[in-house]
Structures are given as structure tokens and as C-alpha cells.
Amino acid sequence: QVQLVESGGGLVQAGGSLRLSCLASGSIFSINFMRWYRQAPGKQRELVASITRGGVRNYRDSVKGRFTISREIEKNTVYLQMNSLKPEDSAVYYCNAEYGVGNYWGQGTQVTVSS
Predict the structure, then answer these.
(1) Under a CB-based contact definition with an 8 Å cutoff, are residues 105 and 3 in contact?
(2) Are 10 and 19 in contact (CB under 8 A)?
(3) Is there a contact between 13 and 82 (Cβ–Cβ < 8 Å)?
(4) 38 and 91 Cβ atoms separated by less than 8 Å
(5) For position 80, what pLDDT does the model report?
(6) Using an 8 Å Cβ cutoff, are 106 and 8 in contact?
(7) Rounded distance, CA 115 to CA 2, Å?
């Protein structure tokens, strides 16, 4: 069982930055994948970024060069650094962990980017 708690969302102007944090209840070292998803009103949830247990990172095309996923294993925390934010980045951002046969989600944190 893994519990995830996101934080760091908020309101920011276009071009600004935010850093989201995802604190896991246990060690993230053995988690196969940790991902950040987002969901805007009326839209499907979409994968934003992921990091594997081995540290391999992937991003959706629209955030490449602007977002960075990282982790601090000793703090059981995964981050999403978001720079050059755009209004279309506005959404609820969710942390996700794939561990064993389980798939775990946080409660989400709202990111709003004003133009």
C-alpha cells in the first residue's frame, strides 16, 4: 500500500513557475514508476511526466523543455518543476505510483495559470 500526498499547486501568471511535490508514505526506491498526470475541466486525464525506478524520465511533448520530474529517494518525494507556465497548463495535477500490481493516486493539487 502506498499513500501519496501532493502539494505545491496554486495560482501563477503565465511565464511563471511552480514546483509540485508528491510525498509517498514509504520508500519510493522500489516503486516501478512514478508519474504526474493532470486533468483540466471537461478533459481526460493525461500523463505529463514519469520517472522509472532506474531514473529514466519521459515527458509529454507539450511540456518538454519546460517541466522537469525529479526525486529525492531519502525524502520519499517526487517533484515536478514547472517553468514557463501557460494558461493551458491549468489543471488538477495528480501523483501516481505503480508498485507491484497496485496503482496508487494522490488527491490532486490545483494549478491555475492566468494569462
Answers:
(1) no
(2) no
(3) no
(4) yes
(5) 98
(6) no
(7) 37
Strands 4-7, 109-114: pairing is unpaired
Q: Provide mean pLDDT across the span 101-105.
A: 91
Rounded to the nearest 10 degrees, how much is the dihedral formed by the CA atoms of 62, 79, 29, 75?
180
Question: What's the pLDDT at 1?
Answer: 80
Distance CA 69, CA 79 (A): 6
Give the span between the Cα atoms of 60 and 64, in whole angstroms: 6
Question: DSSP string of the chain?
Answer: ---EEEE--EEEETT--EEEEEEESS-STT-SEEEEEEE-TTS--EEEEEEETT--EEE-GGGTTTEEEEEEGGGTEEEEEE-S--GGG-EEEEEEEEETTEEEE---EEEEEE-
Distance CA 51, CA 32 (A): 9
Higher pLDDT, 30 or 50: 50
